[in-house]
Each structure stands twice: as C-alpha cells, then as structure tokens.
Amino acid sequence: MPTNSPTLEFKSGSFSVPILILFTDDLKAIGQQLQEKVDLAPEFFKNSPLIFDVQELNKLSRALDIPALVDIIRQSGLLPTGIRGGTTEQNKEALALLIPVYSAHSSTLTSADTQAPKQKIIESESSVNASATIITRPVRSGQRLYASGDLIVLAQVSAGAEIMAEGNIHVYNTLRGRALAGVQGNVDARIFCSDLQAELISIAGNYKISEDMRDVVSKKSVQVYLQGHTLIIKDIV
Amino acid sequence: MTRIIVVTSGKGGVGKTTTSAAIAMGFAKKGHKTAVIDFDVGLRNLDLIMGCERRVVYDIVNVIYGEATLNQALIKDKHCENLYILPASQTRDKDALSQEGVGQILEELAAKDFKYIVCDSPAGIEKGAHLAMYFADDAFVVTNPEVASVRDSDRMLGILASKSRRAEQNLEPIKEYLLLTRYSAERVKIGEMLSVTDVQDILSLHLLGVIPESKSVLTASNSGMPVILDEKSDAGQAYADIVARYLGEDKPHRFIEEKKGIFGKFFGSK
Ligand SMILES: Nc1ncnc2c1ncn2[C@@H]1O[C@H](COP(=O)(O)OP(=O)(O)OP(=O)(O)O)[C@@H](O)[C@H]1O
Ligand SMILES: [Mg+2]
C-alpha cells in the first residue's frame, strides 16, 4: 500500500430511497399498513433507509408525534433517514433523534394516485419516471433484483433467485426462481414469461408456489394476472 | 497480457484442485509461463497433487505478511520449466489472506510476465473463495452432474457477476466457462446423474469440456503428477482438450456419449 494514498474523499451520489407519505395521524393504522407492505417484500425492506413525508398531513394541520412515528417505522424493520415537509417543531424533534431534515420542495414527488390516497402509503421516489429496468444477464441463485417500475429480464432466472417489481415482470426465458410483481400493492400488475417453472409467483401479495403450478406446461409462453384474490395463469397464444 | 483464471465451484470436492493442477500444467506445456496458486489456506493440497509438497518452504501467507518474497515462495515445477506453484499455508487460518495482499501478488506475477495465473479456490463462498475469484478475468466453473453441485455453481456465478473486481468497477464481466467433471455416461443413461444437456439447460453456460469419472485421477494424484501428464488416460485427454479449446483450438466434445463395448464399436448405430 503506497503511503501517500488519500485517507478520504467526498463524492456526490444520488440514491433511490423509498419515501413514506402519510395521510393520517392515526399511528396505529400507520403501523399496521406499514407492516403489511413490509411483509410483501420483507427482504427488500429489511434495514432499508426511508424518508417520511408529513407535508400532506401538515396541510390538514394534523401534526404528528414524530418520536412515536420514528418508533413505529423502526419496529417494522425500516431505518428512518430523513423527514420531509415537517414544521419547524417537527424538524427539531427529528434532529434531536439524529434524523436529517429534507426540504419539502421536490420535483420528484407527484401523487399520481389521487383516488385512494389512504392506501398509497409508500411511494418510491423513482416511481415517477417508472421506466422499465432491463436485465440482459442471467439472474443467479442468491441474487435479488428490485425494480420500481417494470422489470424485463432477457435471460434466465435461476432457482434460488428473486426478482421483484412494483410494476409488471417480463421474463423472456426460463423463470425458475421467485417472481413478485406489484409488490407495492398494484393489483393490475402482471407477470409474462416464456417458460414458467417458478418456485413462487406473486402479484400484489397473492401468491402461488411451485406445488400449486404442477400442471403448468413448461416451455410455453404464459401470463399471470390477478382476478380477485386468485392468480390466473393463461397461455399467450 | 496476463490472464487470471479462477477455478471455482461453491460445492466442495467436485474436482477444483484436480482441474487447477491439470490446466496449469496444460498451459505450461504449451509454452506459456504459468503460475498456479492455492487459496485453500488451512487445507492446502495443491502441492500434493503437483508433487511438490516436500519442497514447500514459504507460502502465500508468508508473502502477504512480508515474511518471504514472492520469488522465495514460488516453487518451480519439476516436470515443466514454465510452471510455478504458490502453495497455501497449512498452519494459518483463512483470515490470514487479504484482498490487498492478494492483489499485490497478482500484480507482481503480471510484472514477471506470467501469461496465465490459475487460482485454485477453496469450497464455499467465504473469504478464501471470494479472494480467489475477486481479481479473475475468466472463471472455470467446475460442476458435477448432480443437482446440489449445479445449484452451488449457479450461486457462485451470481457472486462472480456481482462481487468481483470486474463487477465492482463496471468492467467487462468475468468470462464464465462450464467444466463438467466426474461425468459418467453410463450413470446418466440410467438416470442417476444429470446429462450435459440438463446441466446446460439449468446453468446456460458455455461448455468448455466434459471430464469423465476416471481412475486415472486418483492414480495421478497419488503419484503427484497432474493427470494431464497421463496422455493415455481419458481424464488426461479431456483436460488437454479443455486447454486447447480455451486457447482457441477447435476440438469436438468427447466423453459425453456412453463408451461402446466391442459390439457397439462394430455394429453401433452411430
Ligand atoms: N474426473 C475424476 N474422476 C474420478 N475422481 C475424481 C475426478 N476428479 C476429481 N476426483 C476425485 O475427487 C476428489 C476431490 O477432488 P479435488 O480435490 O480436485 O476437489 P476440490 O473441488 O478441489 O475439493 P475441495 O473443495 O475440498 O478443495 C479427489 O479424491 C479426486 O481424486
Ligand atoms: Mg481443492
């Protein structure tokens, strides 16, 4: 190791961090819904950073108890790393808990889904330009992928691999691992696949395991969609 | 340009060390200056397979800790003058290796004009296996025709694609090759083993060669001679083919079909 190498360096980087937008000050309801979301993709959310946004609430002048909220978020296994849209008082409370304050002004935040604001409790920052993520190399056992929009995989997905998308999943090869579409609760998400031999498929938390798919013919193009709470697997002709 | 090749598998006992010894000797016999490094600290046995265990003075850990120079630790092979062996330590534990230390050794070998550096990985996905593959340009993924081995190879391929230097620095990915070893066409036929097609179907990987299950491997390792030196043996020929294919020669695959008896030879359909 050369002795004149630098000790440290500052670089700017940008990350995609989930933002939790709150529409209610009912802490119990928040805790419950948060847990439900986390349960959909536990591995993904485990120790994930999270910024919570209280702008909407403050518009209704419903001031939330920040320390209590932080507790709830931590209990669900997420790590709160910022507050957005807080009042001076709330920002102070957050800073006391060593949580950085972000300015409410943000171009990335849009509430695309206005019909059911109460349901939409987590919004990924990148869901705005939710373009598709394209993967060209095999997804191997032990690898995990998460896309905030659609996910398109042009190679195989091995047994023991896990792919997740907030939107649709397309696999133009053999799917042997686990595929979870609509992981943020999008019931209209679908899975398309040219050879379904999956260990598990799921749409918005409704799943089938390989045992339930014994009569699916391999090496045939299929699509999977949700009808009520049932996953339907249909040939694409 | 030096090419660093890792021989890896995930699963233990599939034939990594046998393969490392054979291909390193193969490259050297073709006239390329080659080094083979044992990364299995604590369980070294490459030196046994290479028949140089009595000449080990210093090992890779000594070099990393500055207790010996690389020149002092490299053992010149007695069969081929282009071949050098860097043994692992028997006495240290596997945490004695560091990424920086390994990187320095590889750089020094490159500076000494080694053409091929073969890294014999330990089993598993822990530190030793990680360091063996981290700097690699090519990976020889050694797989036996059985489900557990195939699954572990797949896992290792995921690690090669995400945790290597090439992955971290966004360089061209490691080139991956499949070596299917301990293959027995007879056992495939009666359904006791996966076939070449089955394995390729699951891994979708470029097949560099099939090495048959062969007594010659044990005989070779007992006498401290890489099996490739036994030119009459099937396993030796399989490794020679693999070396030739890797170097760009066009060799049709062998040892995939069942051996035909004397009748088959005369009257067989193929
Ligand atoms: N083609 C073959 N035919 C018969 N036996 C073989 C063949 N290849 C390897 N073996 C035997 O399998 C055993 C394991 O081989 P080897 O030590 O090369 O595996 P390894 O992958 O390096 O093991 P480890 O994970 O412990 O380092 C040895 O006894 C060896 O002789
Ligand atoms: Mg070994």
List the topology elements.
The complex is a heterodimer of chains A (237) and B (270).
Chain A: E1 18-21, H1 27-40, H2 42-45, E2 49-53, H3 55-59, H4 66-75, E3 79-84, H5 88-96, E4 101-102, E5 122-124, E6 133-135, E7 144-147, E8 151-153, E9 162-165, E10 169-175, E11 178-181, E12 191-196, E13 200-203, E14 206-209, E15 222-227, E16 230-235
Parallel strand pairs in A: 1-2, 2-3, 3-4, 6-8, 7-9, 8-10, 9-11, 10-12, 11-13
Antiparallel strand pairs in A: 1-5, 12-15, 13-14, 15-16
Chain B: E1 3-8, H1 16-29, E2 34-38, H2 46-49, H3 60-64, H4 70-73, E3 75-76, E4 83-86, H5 99-111, E5 116-120, H6 127-134, E6 138-143, H7 147-163, H8 165-168, E7 175-183, H9 185-189, H10 196-203, E8 206-212, H11 215-222, H12 234-246, H13 262-267
Parallel strand pairs in B: 1-5, 1-6, 2-4, 2-5, 6-7, 7-8
Antiparallel strand pairs in B: 3-4
Helix pairs in contact in B: 1-12
The complex binds adenosine-5'-triphosphate and magnesium ion.
Going across the biggest sheet of chain B, name each strand in turn.
3-4-2-5-1-6-7-8
Mean pLDDT, all residues of chain B: 94
Query: What's the total helix number of chain A?
Result: 5
Structural class of chain A: alpha/beta
CATH class descriptor of the largest domain in chain A? Mainly Beta
Q: Tell me the distance between the termini of chain A.
A: 61 Å
Name the biggest interface. A-B, 16 and 13 residues
Element-by-element helix/strand order of chain B? EHEHHHEEHEHEHHEHHEHHH
Order of helices and strands of chain A: EHHEHHEHEEEEEEEEEEEEE
Principal-axes shape call of chain B: globular
Q: Helical percent range of chain A?
A: 10-25%
The biggest sheet of chain B, with number of strands, parallel, antiparallel or mixed sense and barrel status, is: 8 strands, mixed
Annotation field: number of helices of chain B: 13
N-to-C span of chain B: 43 Å
